Amino acid sequence: MPVRLDVIVASRFALDGGAMFGVVPRPLWERRHPPDSAGRIRLASRALLMRFEETGRIAVIDAGLGGLWDAREKERLGIESEEDGLVRTLGALGVNPEDVTDAVITHLHFDHAGGWVRRDSAGRLRPVFPRAIHHVQREHWEWAMRPAARDRASFLARSILPLEEAGVLKLADGSGEILPGLEVRVSKGHTLAMQVPVFRGRSGTVAFPSDLLPTTAHAGEAWGMAYDLRPLDVAAEKAALFATASQEGWILVLEHDPSHEACTVAVSGEWFALSPCACPAEL
Ligand SMILES: [Zn+2]
């Protein structure tokens, strides 16, 4: 039986355009992503729902920003995200929070992991998916507990620690298969031990590169983010991803692209060309 896939826009928000494009000069990036008057560019934060019909497992990859934001933070980050936005969208697709068996956390930065936690009716911070195994790399978890000053602002204890308190974490040591056909590959350029899910289905492969390829504008080798801890590793990992994706016809889901949910990759001379496409509904 095939695996059903749904790409969900969990949140929309905005970040400083300069920070999103690192060393790329503004006249180059602003043509592709026109900034607002505060210099911010609009971004999506997507999640991927995977329904494994053969085994009944239901996986959610990343969770957007969630709803634990006060008015000032919402204004600063241009957040359009309600506490139950992801849950409501899943509900419309026929999935209840209790049905989700696997939460795949690429990494714990707030724009990917804020949505794993919400307040219950008594005001306590609890996992959104109470029965799910929450998969994260051990090295990344430990980094998130003691980040460097450089990326401390990207981790929010309120949306991370309740996962540990609830005992839902499964810490992994390296790349490997977590569900039939669904492998995570450790990537070390953006942050310590981010994991990139790659699903090899019956009729094709879909990967979820997370912050290794945030938008279609980040295809070029030098087009990384100022947030990347190891920019040269990001460039090398991206080139390796593109080489395989172009050879094998992979579809890459784009977590942050404001307009496009996914793309394919083709070799074009020394360059890789990305073509926006839809994520297949099943594989
Ligand atoms: Zn990140």
Describe the SSE topology:
Elements: E1 3-16, H1 17-21, H2 26-32, E2 40-52, E3 57-61, H3 71-76, H4 85-92, E4 102-104, H5 110-113, E5 117-119, E6 125-127, E7 133-137, H6 138-145, H7 161-165, E8 169-172, E9 176-179, E10 182-187, E11 194-200, E12 205-207, H8 231-248, E13 251-253, E14 262-268, E15 271-277
Parallel strand pairs: 3-4, 4-7, 7-8, 12-13
Antiparallel strand pairs: 1-2, 2-3, 5-6, 9-10, 10-11, 11-12, 13-14, 14-15
The structure holds zinc ion (ZN).
Residues 107, 109, 190-191, 211 line the site of zinc ion (ZN).
Description:
- The protein has 283 residues and is α/β, with parallel strands linked by helices.
- The protein has one domain (3-277): Metallo-beta-lactamase, Chain A, CATH 3.60.15.10.
- The protein is 22% helix and 31% strand.
- The protein is built from eight helices and 15 strands.
- The chain has helices spanning 17-21, 26-32, 71-76, 85-92, 110-113, 138-145, 161-165, 231-248, and strands spanning 3-16, 40-52, 57-61, 102-104, 117-119, 125-127, 133-137, 169-172, 176-179, 182-187, 194-200, 205-207, 251-253, 262-268, 271-277.
- A hairpin with a 2-residue loop joins β14 (262-268) and β15 (271-277).
- The structure holds zinc ion (ZN).
- Zinc ion (ZN) binds at residues 107, 109, 190-191, 211.
